[in-house]
Amino acid sequence: MLGITVLTALLAFASSCGVPSIQPNLTARVVGGDSAEPHSWPWQISLQYLKDGTWRHTCGGTLIASNFVLTAAHCINNALTYRVGLGKNNLAVEDEPGSLFVAVDTIHVHEKWNSFLVRNDIALIKLAEHVEMSDTIQVACLPEEGSLLPQDYPCYVTGWGRLWTNGPISDELQQGLQPVVDHATCTQRDWWGSMVKDTMVCAGGDGVISACNGDSGGPLNRQAENGSWEVVGIVSFGSGLGCNTLKKPTVFTRVSVYIDWINQVGAAPRPSLRCQPRLPVPCPSLLHSFTRSRLCS
Question: Rounded CA gap, 146 and 193, in Å?
Fold first, then answer.
C-alpha cells in the first residue's frame, strides 16, 4: 500500500498534472508586482484562518492531490481553525466563479520541524473532502526525488503576499520570475551563509523581484522538459531587511528531499503529527547580524 492516498490521486492525473488550462504570463512579477493571469496557476491555494468571525489569508500552498495540500510548517498554529481556498484569483471576491472553500481534516507537520533553525519547514494538509479537477483547480506535479536545479534555472513564485515591504496584501494572485541560486552561492557569507542547508533551495536575490509576507507556504514552480509544472520549493523565509534585499534570495524548502515523507503521510490512515505555533514575524537570528523573516501575513 505504497502512498495510496497521495499517489493514486497523482497517478490519476499523471497526464495532466501541472498543465493549466490557462497558460501563465511568464513576464509578470511578485514584489514590484504584476498580477498573474487568472487561474493560470490552478494548484495555488489560499490557507485561511478564522478570527473574530472572519476568514483571513495567512499563507499559500499547493494542491498535489485531490485531497492534499503542501505548505510550510511555520504557517501552522494548532490554536487556529483553517480552511483552504481553491480556484481563487481575487481573494476579495468570496464567491468567485470556479472557486470553492474546503474544510481541513488533518494537518501533518514534519516531525523534525525546527522553528528556531527553520529546518524541515514542510506540512501536508489533508482536506475534509476530495475536490473535483476543473479549469480553475488542478494538481501540480511533484519533482523527481533528490533532483536539483542548476544556477539561474528559471522558476516562478506565486502568492497573495505583500506587494512591497510593509505594503498591502494583494487581492489578486501575483507571480514572479525567481532564478535558482545554487547552494555554493547561497551559502556564501555575504549571502545566507550557514543558515541555508541542502534541504533548501534559494531563488531570486536580485534586489528587485521577490516573495514577501503572505507568500509563505506557496510554491516555487518550474516547468519540466515535457511542459508540465512541478512544485520544487515551498516559500520558507526571507530577509527581515526587506522582501527584495540584494543577495538575500527567498529560501524555499526543497520538495525533492521530502518525496518519501509525502508518500508516507499520504499512505497513513490518520497520522497525528504535531502542529506547532508560529513564531512572530520577523524572527531574530542568532546566526546572522540581520534578521530573517517568515513570509506569512
Answer: 22
